[in-house]
Design brief:
The complex is a heterodimer of chains A (about 325) and B (about 325). By secondary structure, chain A is mainly α. Chain A has 13 helices and no strands. Chain A folds into two domains: about 1-50; about 55-310, MetI-like (MetI-like fold, Orthogonal Bundle), CATH 1.10.3720.10. In chain A, helix 6 runs antiparallel to helix 11 (about 215-250), helix 8 packs across helix 9 and helix 11 packs antiparallel against helix 13. Chain A is elongated and about 80 Å long. Chain B has a domain at about 90-275: MetI-like (MetI-like fold, Orthogonal Bundle), CATH 1.10.3720. In chain B, about 80% of the residues lie in helices and about 0% in strands. In chain B, helix 1 packs across helix 4, helix 5 packs across helix 8 and helix 5 runs antiparallel to helix 10. Chain B is globular and about 85 Å long. Classes of the chains: A mainly alpha (about 325), B mainly alpha (about 325). At the A-B interface, helix 7, helix 8, helix 11, helix 12 and helix 13 of A face helix 1, helix 6, helix 7, helix 10 and helix 11 of B. Chain B: It is found in: Cell membrane. Chain B: It holds the Pfam family BPD_transp_1_N. Chain B: One of its GO terms (biological process) is transmembrane transport.
Chain lengths: ~325, ~325
Amino acid sequence: MVSQIDNKNQQIDDVSGADHVPNSVDIDDENKTGKRQNQNSLWAAIKSSPSALYGGIFLLIIVFACVVIPHVMKMDPFATKASDILMAPSWQHVMGADNVGRDVFARVLFGGESSLLVGGSVAVVSGVLGFIVGAYSAFFPKIGYWLMRVCDGLMAFPAILFGIALIGGLGQSIGNVILALSIVFIPYVARVVRSATMSNMNENYVSVLVSLGASSTRILWRNIALNVIAPWIIEVTFVFADAILVEAAMSFIGTGIPQPSPSWGNMLYDSRTYIYQAWWLTVFPGVALALTVFVINIFGDGLREVFDPKRRR
Amino acid sequence: MLKYIFKRLLSAVPVIFIVGILAFFLSRLSKGDPARVIAGTDATDSQVAAIRQQMGLDLPLPNQLWDWFIALLHGNFGYSYILNQSVSSAIASHIFPTLSVAIFGEILSLAIAIPLGILAADKQGTFTDKLVQGFATLTTSMPSFLVGLLLMLLFATRLNLLPVSGFVSPTESFSQYILHLILPAVSVTTLQIAIVARMTRSSMIDALSSDYIRTAVAKGLPRSQQLWHHGFKNAAIPVLTVVGQSFGELIAGSIIVETVFDIPGLGQLVVNSILRRDYQMIQGILIFVAIVFIFVNLITDVLYAVIDPRIRQESF
């Protein structure tokens, strides 16, 4: 009997999770909400937000360009050619060649692959751990108080400096960059999840579940979690973008992805020496970095519109 | 007012405590024996043991943690055995250029971002608003060192208007000091402009929809007075919060930008410490920046009470 009611509740929750209008939709947004009620699928919601749609498409293009193309075309970011040293962009090297005659285009794409790998892994690791920390610290206020103070302490360190110090202790490798940045970004995710969970805990459905005798694990992971997913996904998208920026800054001062592996940050550092002779060494990795982060940020803004119609402009 | 400040100071204690513990474990993270690194490769075991004892590394972990805290409370951020200098004296000799860039950048960002944010809120939904928001999204996507490099590219090879590297002390030539600061400050400020302009916009939109603005409109006040005197005064608190919260990132940004413009500040100290594998120095700088961050936030919280009488009232 109890489980039947529980199931019903679960279904109601599933529905509200699926069309992504959390129970907090305001009445004074009625015209917009009204429009959205006809569109039940996530796809329709994404289509209704140009930022999410085009941001998503461009992000896929960038991922394809960095992860698939260099391998399919069998590009070599390490091949040097003495005759091509500091060669300006031409048909032979579309983005020119660097100070040891390596193809900048290949290095930009491979650099993008490692940036996306770092950004994506950090988003997943800090996303999952941040969700657990945030949800439990909302559910158990006493542990939560101390967990949040630890988060405050972590957030008092600027991300870049904390990353540098961690890499100092752990040693410089791409895996350690991912580990260091995941630790840096857990508090950001945890804070968002915590406040979303806390506002859900005041909802009626939670008190109903409590009086039905549902276990706290069940309430937290099968009911509240579904309502927290929207703000969580948005935050994780921004962590993705920020992690790419911080990785680039760390590589720029020599504590990120170790040389000679290309990364946008260390390519930009190398470009500084040749800034008077070779503009292409600065411009192409720089534009690739800014464009990627810009597209992810636009995508994140779009997701925010999709999940939260109140924020639509 | 004093009671409010005291309460706020007290609430910073657990955070400082946790920052201390985190930094302690960070400093014990490194693989290998720091004493052996300092003693050099051809030191005998007894020499290494002597250094361990001198550094207190032979004590149990809780004792080390305790000593660490006592040292922190005395303003001792550690000792670089590689430079044979205390971290605080190294910071003291490098802090001025970094602070110059950060503070000049902060002033620049406030001077640009607040009017931009108010403009966007006033013209909400129009093309101007979209332009400001697009600009903000674009600048949040550009790390400060990239802006610095692009500015350098532009000014070094095309314009020749401003100096592109180095730092001149204000006692030497004040005008040169300012001229050398312009490009670094503009580089660190772009991100800050985006953050502050966004916050100003959203908090102004809230303020502009309130009753007192309707009253101000009804009694025929000029728009500028409605916006600045009535609107912004009420919208200032969230703006102040982001300014305080992002000041730490601004210092971190200055540290990276110094590498671009060859400025002999904390950034140079950090980069050289990385090259020397001097992690005591890096951790000391990290703690120093974290403590500066905590205090800047304390000061912003106190400023709330100065700006907003309601907060002052609550504490009594």
